[in-house]
Write a structure and sequence with these properties.
By secondary structure, this protein is α+β, with helices and mostly antiparallel strands. The chain folds into two domains: about 170 residues, no CATH class; about 170 residues, no CATH class. Helix content is about 55%, strand content about 15%. It has a nine-stranded mixed beta sheet with strand order 6-7-5-8-4-3-10-1-11, sandwiched between helices. Helix 1 packs across helix 12, helix 2 packs across helix 12 and helix 10 packs parallel to helix 13. The longest helix has about 40 residues. The chain is elongated, with a radius of gyration of 29 Å.
């Protein structure tokens, strides 16, 4: 029998106990996988950019900015590209089915943010064919069951004709740079939206600025805000990541809350696992004594017990993380769950750490057990 076979048979010595312990570990890592995916997606840990800047109204992000600001921002020497967006929220079919439309200049948004959204020249050309053409994000298209060429109705901002009914034709679907990219919205042509809407003509909600290579985003942000310091609509310029984090902090410190919840879960499972392994070692005192008589050294016995706990945590943790991954694939785009490589790496590190920590005390007990005391159990 090999060392690994001995370790595996010891784990399955009490099958029900091993299964229940693995199940508990799996539930703990299912909770961790989902919460970590939520933090990763909502705070933009993987997808938000530190280099892409957003220029908003300083008084409130809900207030517009004049489109005329575009030329002054573009005149800054350290600005590589600048675009603008006017956000229109509405619904499709029923009021609960909320959808966001970003009105943009196709060529400008491709230059400023095309890499992050994967706006190819073919998509931009298709969007420019007519004023009612829109590009739909992959997550939104999947959720609604839309396809290219489909005509969709949208109830949104008040139009100049007094109605709120808008009609668009899907010209293409953009993917986003990776799984963490937000693609749950549509891109429409600003000129068509601006001409048809009843209010806020020639205004935008934000400008998107890409600095030139080597230019500090924070320095450029300060210079842009200085341009409009004495204007009627002053600006506040932030990176995409800063904006997302500031937005979430308005409600709560999401990272702290998640850390506290996950910490409580792991402390609980750690106490349960340690107590179970100590009890398992006490059951096998005679066998441990036999191993010592047969020549098993203290390091090998230590490795045997630690290997058992690692095996339990690996099997249970893999099951929990697998379920978390399936959950993020099925509901991730709608709820901002992103199970990326960062979450996986942290999960594996926690599995290894908890597995070793759980087995440390039972292993030390087994190593320090005198042979004579072990044989007295029979």
């Amino acid at each position: 029998m090999t060392f690994f076979q001995l370790m595996r048979r010891n784990v399955w010595r009490k099958r029900l106990r091993a299964i229940l312990l693995m199940f508990s570990v799996g539930i703990a890592f299912l909770i961790y996988g989902l919460t970590a995916s939520f933090v990763s997606g909502s705070q933009g840990a993987a997808g938000a950019s530190d280099n892409l800047l957003g220029v908003f109204n300083k008084s409130s992000r809900g207030l517009p900015l004049p489109l005329a600001y575009l030329s002054r921002i573009a005149a800054e020497g350290d600005v590589a590209a600048v675009a603008y967006t006017a956000r229109m929220r509405g619904f499709v079919d029923v009021e609960k089915n909320v959808v966001a439309v970003s009105a943009v200049d196709p060529l400008a948004i491709a230059a400023a943010n095309g890499d992050e959204l994967r706006l190819t020249p073919e998509l931009i050309a298709a969007m420019e064919e007519a004023g009612d053409r829109v590009l739909v994000g992959r997550a939104l298209a999947k959720a609604e069951g839309w396809s290219i060429g489909q005509r969709i109705g949208f109830t949104g901002q008040l139009r100049a004709d007094g109605s709120r009914n808008w009609s668009f034709t899907i010209a293409g679907i953009f993917e986003g740079a990776d799984a963490s990219s937000d693609t749950y919205f549509m891109l429409a042509r600003y000129d068509a939206i601006n001409a048809a809407r009843a209010r806020d003509k020639d205004t935008v909600d934000a400008f998107v600025v890409r600095p030139r290579p080597g230019v500090s985003p924070s320095v450029l942000a300060a210079r842009i805000d200085a341009l409009f310091a004495n204007s009627a609509a002053q600006t506040r310029t932030q990176s995409e990541k800063q904006f997302l984090e500031a937005f979430l902090r308005q409600f709560a410190d999401i990272g702290l809350i998640v850390s506290l919840v996950v910490g409580a879960v792991f402390v609980t499972i750690l106490m349960i696992a340690v107590n179970t392994m100590i009890f398992a070692v006490r059951e096998r005192r005679f066998e441990i004594g036999v191993l010592k008589v047969l020549g098993f050294s203290s390091p090998r016995i230590l490795a045997l017990i630690l290997g058992e706990t690692l095996f339990i945590f690996l099997v249970g943790g893999a099951g929990g993380l697998g379920l978390a991954k399936l959950a993020t694939l099925s509901i991730g785009p709608e709820f901002g769950l992103v199970f990326g490589t960062t979450v996986l790496a942290k999960s594996l590190a926690i599995i290894a750490g908890l597995g070793l920590l759980t087995g440390l005390l039972p292993a030390v007990i087994a190593v320090r057990l005198p042979i004579i005391n072990a044989f007295r159990t029979r």
